[in-house]
Design brief:
Layout: H1 2-56, H2 64-71, E1 78-82, E2 87-91, H3 100-116, E3 120-124, E4 135-140, H4 144-211, H5 218-237, E5 245-248, H6 249-263, E6 268-273, E7 280-283, H7 285-303, E8 307-316, E9 319-326, H8 354-365, E10 369-376, E11 380-388
Parallel strand pairs: 6-8
Antiparallel strand pairs: 1-2, 1-4, 3-4, 5-7, 8-9, 9-11, 10-11
Helix pairs in contact: 1-2, 1-4, 4-5, 6-7, 7-8
Length: about 400
């Protein structure tokens, strides 16, 4: 759980860092855009005054400075409207695929829009600056630089979010790889450690059979030794790709019910709901039995040794579904997304590895799916397994 907590902390830190970067970028960008907008308005006021001087000039006026000011505007889009709202001139506007009539209509509409947004400088065409005299409105739009600067924080936010997603994905992948190594190492070591005592027990069992051929307890002892051998075999297959063969799901579930019926109290009822015809699936029978056994054992724990476990299997299209339903205490909604997490358990005893192993066996080895189909507190839980049918 420490690793899970560390991953959660890192994810929170990454998200907080992304938010801080985004807010800081928006603040700085807004500050710069505001200053640049004020500077551009000042430039447009100078440009408008130059336009006024140009309109009022006579043959003796030196227009060199006026023309220089007017010609040096290469970035700010400008539309000049007269007092009647007609366009007299414009510059730095990009107009694509429009004829002359459409262009004039477009520029006129653009100019009126800018004026309604208070993006204009009004100049009067006489020296009195009388509001009743003739005037022109120099309408201007934000330059390309301001528009790019306004959009940059959002681009930066997108880049940061992509970085956060990639970083979290890398962390989760690293976590999963580390878990896989732990699974493989633990499984191989367990199988190895069980191998020697199981071999000794098998040898002693054979000796006892020869010495006491009529003893009634020896067959049961032999079954337990074979069970230990099966468990060691299952552990040895974890971490390596097991061989899948076409098998009868009915027989596999029969074995599970037979085993669980002998290992649980008489107050636990096992019910099979299987079709008459065999359901054929490609599985590793030994590992798949382990999955269903884990679900049944969890069900027994959830029912506290009293209740009913129902195994239902049917073919649905090109899939075979297996439902394991119990009448136990159910799973809280907040725990549903954690039930397959390694280490998660609601029991006082246990490592919380059974369902995690079951998920690994079903999804990674058998390319199937396992999930909680339904759960209600006080009434029970249904786990569903979906496998691809092997029938033609």
């Amino acid at each position: 759980m420490q690793w899970t907590d560390r991953i959660r902390q890192v994810k929170i830190i990454l998200v907080v860092a992304a938010v801080v970067i985004a807010v800081a970028s928006l603040f700085v960008s807004n500050y710069l855009v505001r200053d640049l907008s004020a500077e551009e308005r000042t430039k447009m006021e100078v440009w408008a005054e130059a336009m006024r001087s140009f309109n009022m000039a006579d043959e003796n006026t030196d227009l060199n400075l006026v023309l220089k000011v007017m010609d040096e505007n290469h970035t700010i889009p400008v539309i000049v409207l007269d007092s009647a709202g007609m366009v007299t001139t414009y510059r730095n506007l990009k107009i694509h695929g429009k004829n002359e009539t459409d262009s004039l209509a477009y520029v006129t509409a653009k100019g009126h829009k800018l004026r309604s947004e208070d993006m204009y400088v009004r100049i009067y065409l006489d020296e009195s600056n009388d509001p009743g005299s003739d005037y022109i409105d120099v309408c201007y739009d934000d330059s390309v630089m301001i528009k790019r600067l306004s959009a940059w924080p959002f681009v930066q936010l997108g880049v940061v979010m992509v970085f956060v997603v990639v970083a979290i994905f890398a962390l989760l992948t690293s976590k999963r790889a580390e878990q896989n190594k732990v699974w493989v190492g633990l499984s191989k070591e367990t199988a190895h450690q069980l191998g020697t005592p199981i071999s000794s027990l098998m040898a002693w069992t054979e000796i006892l059979k020869e010495t006491y051929p009529n003893d009634d307890l020896l067959p049961e002892m032999d079954k337990d030794v074979q069970r230990l051998q099966l468990i060691a075999d299952r552990f040895s297959k974890i971490g390596s790709l097991p061989e899948l063969t076409s098998s009868s799901l009915n027989q596999v579930l029969d074995h599970v019910v037979d085993y669980m019926s002998r290992r649980t109290s008489a107050r636990v009822t096992m019910i099979k709901q299987l079709p008459d015809e065999d359901l054929i699936v490609r599985i590793n029978a030994s590992l798949f039995e382990w999955v269903v056994e884990n679900l049944c054992k969890n069900a027994v724990d959830a029912m506290e040794g009293v209740g009913t476990i129902t195994l239902h299997a049917e073919k649905a299209g090109n899939k075979v579904v297996i439902d394991v339903t119990d009448t136990g205490k159910g799973i809280r909604k907040k725990d549903l997304h954690n039930v397959f997490t390694p280490g998660f358990t609601t029991k006082k005893r246990g490592w919380g590895l059974g369902l995690s192993l079951a998920k690994r066996i079903v999804e990674e080895y058998h390319r199937g799916r396992i999930y909680v189909k339904s759960s209600e507190l006080g009434k029970g839980t249904t786990f569903r397994i979906e496998l691809k049918s092997d029938e033609s």
